[in-house]
Amino acid sequence: MSAKSKPTPSSSRVVPIRAEPIELSQFLKFAGAAESGGQAKQAIADGEVQLNGVVETRKGKKLVAGDKVTFAGQTLVVKVS
Q: How far apart are CA 78 and CA 68, in angstroms?
């Protein structure tokens, strides 16, 4: 595999939340990764979202500080502020 054909690493961004846990679909909307809750739920159901490197299809999955959500080429890290 040449250097040009390797996938580029996703960008990473810390997203502060007020309290944990937060549901995966709510987190995607809150972080601005999804335009709406409906879009977030559909992306999760379609297997387009990874949680800590594993495809996650449960929209109500609870996230805690340190969890890493990957969607649409970016990685979002949960942080409680």
A: 6
Q: Identify the CA nearest to 16 among candidates 75, 53, 73, 66.
A: 66
Helices (H) and strands (E) in the chain, counts: 2, 7
Q: Is the pTM of this model over 0.90?
A: no
**Whole-number Å distance between alpha carbons of 63 and 27:** 8
Q: In sequence order, what are the residues at sequence separation of 6 or more whose Cβ sits closer than 8 angstroms to the Cβ of residue 3?
A: none
In this structure, the number of other CB atoms found within 10 A of the CB of residue 55 comes to 12
Flag residues of the chain having pLDDT under 50: 1-8
Domains present along the chain, CATH in parentheses: 11-80 (3.10.290.10)
Instruction: State residue 6's pLDDT score.
Output: 37
Interatomic CA distance for residues 75 and 12, integer angstroms: 5
Element (H, E) at 30: helix 24-31
